[in-house]
Amino acid sequence: MTLDCPWWLPGVVAIALAGCGGAGTTSNEKPSVSISVSATSPLTAGATIRLTASALDVDGTISSYQWTQISGTSVELSSATIAAPTFVAPVGVSAQSLVFNVVVTDNDGATGSTSVSMSVAAGVAAPVNFWMRNVGTNAVTNWDAVDHASTYNLYMATESFASLSSLSSYATLTDGYLFPDITSAPATPYQLTGLETGTRYYFVVTAVCSAAVCGTRTESVASTEITRLIGQTFPFTQALQDTTLETCIGTDGEWTDCPADGLSGQDAQYGRTAGALAGTLSKTGSGVAAMDFTLLDEDGNAVTDRSAAHCLKDNHSGLIWELKNADDIVRTDGNRFSWYSAVATTNGGQAGLYYGSECSGDVCNTASYNNYLDGLALCGRTDWRLPTVAELRGVSDVGGLCDEDDACLYDTHAWYWSADSWAGDATQAWIVSLDGRPDTPYSKELPRQVMMVSDGGSQ
Amino acid sequence: MKTACAGWLIVLAALVVQPVMAQTCSSTLVKTTGSERFRSQKDGSIYDLQTGLLWSACSYGQTWKSGVCSGSPVAVDLTGALLAVTDLTLAGYQGWRVPNINELQSLVEWSCVGPAADLAYFPDIRNNHYLSSSARDVDGAPVIQVLDFYSGRVRDALYDTSYLLLVRDMR
After folding, report:
1. Which of A225, A363, B16, B142 could cross-link B135 (Cys pair, CB 3.0–4.6 Å)?
2. In the UniProt record, does the keyword Signal occur (chain B) (predicted)?
């Protein structure tokens, strides 16, 4: 075979090798690089801009990128060592220019570099802390004031603004609408009315810089988008019990009918009691003022006769309260017990007194009394507990109405233990009378009456 | 030397006179307020998810800005309080009321005293009496009920005037 080789072939191979790798260590080609910018100058202040380095190495690969900012207000690049970093165009009331440089390095360590310059239009920042809440078909919105802004534009649509490349085409969105040149907000929250129930709305707001301040009238980029489904009311989990006050204080300092002349706006004019006074409050059961109780027998079935009742269901709160019963020596009205709880989150570090000075049967404290009711499964409940101060206040008759009718279902003048230890001194817990007298912390070791409560519902 | 001593005496006097009113909270008792219940609307009002009530974050007489109550709370009697809420616009709303006593006591943080309130949402609640629109009968005459925010206790009004938090329904 070797004999067939032309005489010049080894020479050609040698030259070819020199052109490729053989002599590459000494004559590596530098990479070339150019930069493109994702938007044309002048850039919008506050807009997110992407720089893209397009590098080419004819005899190898690009191994690294290094970006630096040469001039202009310092910006933060998403990364200085990737091919296509982003940054936010700086906000200022005068136009400015930015210059960036990128150095690319190839796999043999050779570098190429180039710079790009761009201008940024004068402008203001987008509003922040944009919030909104709606009640019924109305909404209230506001945002933080933006430096140098003269007015604000509020945009509304029933689809998201995220798909828009420019806010100026907001009208292409479904129900796209602009509330232009708002000046009352953010000093005063901005009100929207007449929104459609069951419709989801989207909102963004921009700040506008006047020609006087920014040279030309310019609009900021959009705020964070807010979306609201109209017709949702504020959620709440547990309506408070109203008081049983049906009368008001007159200007003479005496009780008078509501509303009192010259003193309109008192307790009895609002809430469920106002409905009860007007005869518009519907009740499942019965009770004074806004109170709505159903009596329960020992199995938890509704009864009408107090003498057959062992519990009381509050139809407004859903709570079930025990009622006293003279046939049971433990549950006889007037029995008193010391406060005791082994649970730290309830007792605050002071469990109270287990063997109180007054015992009924072998029940001497509130925890034993609680266990006794659970053991009976009184009214079908095994989740009895001490009530909170607020729960006791919810069955208080501050208006003294049941006394007037001689229709009190429980002793409203006794002092009852609450579940709340006093944060000021955990050897005491709060006691509450059900007639509006000032509640007070009281030594856990001393005897007081109890009226246990159950959450009601499934257990 | 004499003037320097006088200066120090003023400083010492200021330290002695300045009351130290730090809130103390139990490390074990369950919190009854906090972020599970309250939502700051960032406009000086606090929404209570449990009760459906909107509250003024600051006492009447103060102004709210960025979570801080500035100025001094103004103590009012019932006449002054009912007048104060008439036509009042706060956080973009009208329809503010003087709270009834159950509403007012629902704000109590039972694991704290001095004050018994959630200072993260109601930053400047004072260890003092707050007015309600409720009264109870004492010997045939009405006595206004107030909440003592030092402890969370409901009391009969002792003074002619009390501080005021405003409430409105959001249902």
Report:
1. B142
2. yes
